[in-house]
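Worked problem 6 (solution included).
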Amino acid sequence: MLRVRVQFYLVVSLVLAVTAICDPRLSVVGAQSDDAEIRSVVRDVFEALERKDLNKISSLWSEKSPDLAAARQRFAVLVFAAVGANRSKDLQAVSTQHPTAVRTKDMNQLAVTVRSVEAKQDKWRVELSVHNAGESAVFAMADPVRSDRSLGPYIAIAPSDTLDIGAVLHYPPPYSLYVNDARVKLKRVEPGSTLRETFNVEIPFTETIPPYGDTPQRHTVDHTTIKFVKGSVGVIPDEEAVREVLDRKPAGRFVYGLEQLVVGSFKGKRLIDLQTVISSKALKV
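Solution. The predicted structure is:
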């Protein structure tokens, strides 16, 4: 309990520090010492934290800030870390209960395959593809960036003889990370078309962040212990709300997952709520 409280107040301190820099209401605080304005902002922050209202917290940033989307993601990670692992598990449970916004008919027409391209002493080259045999376009996740900003697929070793590589959105972890810039790019996959991406997986195999797990501890295994490889890709329907989010991305179609949808039938949800994760069959190596 003490650890959670300490972590919570650290989060509050960080939020207040960023607020003091970014809130336009405080731009003249140094000159005017306007205590009323300070108290107003502090009260807003605490009320938002109590309600876990990420939209209210992020609204303290200027809408013109080029770092707004990244700031919202960092706020989300901080708030969920302060609440602890139980909250993260609740979010995962919600995702499991409502796993997809892609219509069942369309989802059944999507297939993910994994193919070994080349195996060298220092790395494996693996191709991950998504084929859309349905009648509606979807957005598939590609070009994953890890929490430390390194490029490459998300890697998990589970069970112990299976290497799982993928490009999937993840809810924030139940712990704090010094840097977390994990994101993926959304690429449109038209009916009848296939999206292919080739990854280098360095030897020895080391798990990445994400996926997050309950702790930041990662495992490294000798490649000779791996018997199977499978791939996982997140897909999102080609909906008005999703396109509107992408239109707000002047620097490219990279998304963090917590972007809020503001139009259409999915208004009020977050981008990650629309995700369906499709996995390939295990490939014996």
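Discussion: Residues 2-83 form one domain.
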